[in-house]
Amino acid sequence: MRIYRSLETPHRWPFDHAQSLHLFGAIRDNLGDREQGKLLLLEAFESLHQNEERDSGRGKMIARDYAAMLLNFDVAGTNFRRHSGAGETAEINFELAMKWGAAIGAQQQKVGDFSSAEILMQEHFENQAMLRLTDAIAGGFGDATQIEENPAFDSIRDRDDFQALMKKIAD
């Protein structure tokens, strides 16, 4: 890894480097070193962001795996691990929105200043929570009370798009 980081990074190397960091981070996590795994995933995500590929399929997988590490999900677990995009039903999308919201809360538990990669990841988590919540509501989920009372959404309640979505449900 040290040799790779010392090389110049022409054209495709940043994506390949991010992919390598992603895989290496997952291996470290599987070997029981979750903190090192999370650091490697943050570095991979930031590398993609610097090269304007944060929203690529790889970027989404890295963010999902990082969130799963924050939430202490095992490799085989849950709908969250299976769905990179929208779920098949409104209920699954609502569950995914709650998981993204919970990941925001888990990351906010960190003591100290956030790195630039953690800030980028936080923004991604917020956007994913809103996207999945929007998908859930578009799919027929309409329990405003459950959304209002769910602590997973505490960190996005002040967003304009969250407020607009809640107004849409109320109408």
Question: Can you walk me through this structure?
Answer:
With 171 residues, this protein is mainly α. The protein folds into 2 domains: 1-70; 82-171. It has 9 helices and no strands. Helix 3 (34-50) packs antiparallel against helix 4 and helix 3 (34-50) crosses helix 7 (116-138). The protein is elongated.
- Series of secondary-structure elements, N-terminal to C-terminal: HHHHHHHHH
Any idea what the shape is? elongated
From the N-terminal CA to the C-terminal CA, the straight-line distance is: 54 Å
The level of helicity is 55-70%
- Total number of helices: 9
The residue ranges in which pLDDT falls below 50 over 5 or more consecutive positions are none
Structural class: mainly alpha
Can I get a quick summary?
This protein has helices at 2-6, 13-30, 34-50, 57-70, 78-82, 90-108, 116-138, 144-149, 160-170. It is mainly alpha-helical.
